[in-house]
Design a protein that fits this description.
By secondary structure, the protein is of the alpha/beta class. The chain is built from 11 helices and 7 strands. A 5-stranded parallel sheet has the order 2-1-3-4-5, sandwiched between helices. Strands 6-7 form a two-stranded antiparallel ribbon.
Length: 295
């Protein structure tokens, strides 16, 4: 799971980044709102944005406004951090859809607890291979073929979904919602299923059921983008990336930037609690690209 820090003061950004990494959060940091928007569009694994308000080029208020106007970004939680503690500023950012608010100097433990409350879904992006094979009685070849077919389906579906959502239409046409739900169910993509259920997206596929303001549309597209990458990681025909697993063998959603244009998965750590606790032990390591979802 990735956290995006938007802060023009490099020292402040580095202190917060160092502190949050102790909780095994993957951190991306940029210097203004414009860079943040570019990063959000490239990185579907970002779960929370922590932003300063006063910044050059594009400040935190404009960033928040543009995120809430963008269908696939509007549901991402935003925590505002600033020295401006006046009630007028607080009311303004809350009115624009700010999820939470902290005043500098920031206590990283408080920020970490806020992040933990906002990211309570610890479900793996894709259920582990052995569980799915046992559940449906699949052999290895059939499982691999199913993974490949689902990836091909998403490669075709996602561009059309993004185009439809940008046009203000239902991103899933005709029976696509039911086909997607069934395929996600068959391969254990439980986070996709949870979004369908939480936001009633299957009901929206019925005549007259579409609500363009439903934040579930953007959440679903970002989750499918993450799933698309995960399916590439576990598909032996796709080389050049390694997968990461949760403690129970599922594939995690964390992503780590290694350099320009490069990403590799990283396991999520335990979310911090109010009580002092040790950092969770890292239980997985990068596996060769030819391995399966279960390792």
């Amino acid at each position: 799971m990735s956290i995006l820090i938007v802060e023009d003061n490099k020292t402040s950004a580095q202190i917060l980044e160092f502190s949050l990494k102790k909780y095994n959060y993957e951190i991306l940091a940029v210097g203004n709102g414009r860079e943040a928007l570019d990063t959000l569009k490239k990185e579907p694994g970002i779960r929370v944005v922590i932003s300063d308000i006063m910044m050059p080029d594009m400040d935190g208020i404009e960033l928040l406004t543009k995120m809430r106007e963008t269908p696939d970004l509007k549901a991402i939680p935003v925590i505002m951090c600033t020295t401006m503690a006046d009630s007028e500023t607080v009311q303004k950012v809350i009115g624009l859809g700010c999820t939470d608010f902290v005043v500098k100097p920031i206590d990283p433990k408080i920020v970490a607890r806020k992040i933990a409350k906002l990211t309570d879904d610890k479900t793996a992006v894709l259920e582990d291979k052995k569980s799915i094979m046992n559940q449906f009685g699949l052999d290895d070849e059939t499982y691999r073929s199913s993974i490949s077919n689902f990836r091909t389906f998403l490669d075709d579906l996602l561009p059309r979904m993004e185009k439809q959502l940008a046009a203000g239409s239902s991103p899933l046409q005709n029976n696509e919602a039911h086909v997607l739900f069934e395929q996600a169910s068959n391969l254990g993509a439980k986070r996709v299923l949870n979004i369908f259920t939480k936001y009633g997206l299957l009901d929206e596929n019925e005549p007259g059921g579409h609500n363009r303001e439903n934040p579930g549309h953007g959440r679903l597209i970002r989750e499918l983008q993450l799933l698309q990458r995960t399916l590439t990681d576990v598909n032996p025909s796709k080389a050049g990336s390694a997968e990461s697993k949760t403690a129970d063998g599922g594939v995690s959603s964390g992503i780590k930037k290694n350099g320009p244009g490069e990403i590799s998965p990283k396991p999520d750590g335990k979310p911090p609690s109010d009580a002092n606790e040790k950092n969770p032990e890292k239980k997985s390591e990068a596996a060769p690209a030819t391995t399966s979802a279960s390792g």
